[in-house]
Amino acid sequence: MADEEKALSRRLYINELYDLYGPLLTEKQKEAWELHEFSDFSLSEIAERLGASRQAVHDLISRSRDRLEELEGLLGFHEKEETLENEIRSLREAAAGINSGKEDRELEEKNDV
Predict the structure, then answer these.
(1) Which pTM value belongs to this model?
(2) How many angstroms separate the Cα of 43 from the Cα of each of 25, 56, 84?
(3) Cα separation of 65 and 75, whole Å?
(4) What is the DSSP letter of 51?
């Protein structure tokens, strides 16, 4: 996997964690995170909006990311969700195979009559 793909995959993973655990962050962490990730504000723009230094905003976003990963480590909801999605996908594929086989048998029965 290329570095860009890894970076994108990581960013998607962290944003999925935010979807799950965002309500558990502080209001300042949520505001900084949303401005940075969803509104594409620079650290300087966020700092100006929050009345903080650029370094403080960087630290706030870093702590938010760390907290999201910590919560996943403790609760594991993302991993459980992924596991369930994979099981559902497997069941759907198995059901499609059963339905396909049933349709083949019905077609054979019609041809035999």
Answers:
(1) 0.79
(2) 19, 9, 37
(3) 15
(4) T
